[in-house]
Fold:
Amino acid sequence: MKRLMAPAILLLLLTGTAGGEELFCRGNIISTQGEGIVARKHRFEVADVTGSDVNAVLAQCKIIARERQARAARKNPGGNFRAVSEVELHCTRGTESFEVRRSLQTLP
Structure:
């Protein structure tokens, strides 16, 4: 009897924690600095960004993009960054894996 209950209890525990799992993402943020012919693309790599959902992860990516853009602008003052950056992330939650591609407003 105890052997039959153990798999059932394990299954209940696993399904109960599946809803509370964190979302782990890694990928790139692509920002453009400057305009026209002198426009320069910067690819900022992000790794191990976590959150409860995609919106929380994108909010963290926005903060990361702003920090990296400020650092890149200090190293190479070649114009202002554009207000919108492209985000490409590969995310996993438990056994589920998916890709997120969004345009993200990184400047106020």
Remarks:
- The helical segments are 2-18, 54-75.
- The CA atoms of residues 60 and 86 lie 14 Å apart.
